[in-house]
Amino acid sequence: MSEPNDDGGNVRPDKQPPVEQSRDDGNRDEQQPDEALDLDVLPGGAKAALEAVLMVIDEPATEFELATALLLPVDRVRSLLAELRAEYDGYTGEDPAPDSASAATTPRGFELRNVAGGWRIFSRSTFAPVVSRFVLEGQTAKLTQASLETLAVIAYRQPVPRARVSAIRGVNVDSVIRTLTQRGLIEEAGTDPEFGAVLYQTTAYFLERMGIGSVAELPKLAPHLPGLDNLEEFEDLTY
Length: 239
Prior knowledge:
Elements lengths: L18 H17 L9 H12 L6 H8 L3 H16 L20 E6 L2 E6 L4 H10 L7 H13 L2 E2 H8 L4 H9 L3 E6 L6 E5 L1 H7 L29
Antiparallel strand pairs: 1-2, 3-5, 4-5
Helix pairs in contact: 2-4, 3-4, 6-7, 6-8
């Protein structure tokens, strides 16, 4: 038999409605990913996690931005950055003397720099001739599948911002955009008047390589890709 409930809302403790409990459980579920993000149990720990973030950024990130992404105190991120820079420069930290044989290792081909108020990994200027030769010789190399897909999106959606290309492909396209730009297949086409994002379009060299006079001569995709009409949903994406 159910317990009576008066107009004042008095309910036996063991008969409390589950609404508030469910809300608390929901909050705990929402916070669980952050609370469970224990970087120290990952391979390489927090330092490796910081390194992973530095490898994918395309512009310098401040210590605060890195700390926010990793959910770490700024002081610890600053310390980890110093350790990474020392390791890349060839010091293990095993000996306080930088010129000690036990402290020195082979420097990496890349380095961690603090530029424009933020941190980013760069190839060492010492190897600039090697890197330049690779980039120039790569102009004649075949495009990867990722490059071809990105180029196709730009060709059919131009002028288009990088964020929309990433959304359509479902992956970060920063490095591919740089490759296509270096090869002269795409170029900047101003900025979006509403969001200010840089727009990209194909070049005359692209048309030359495709053997067509204008992008209007590109083959129609609809007959080959059923459901292409759904592509319009990406028009609402933010930049």
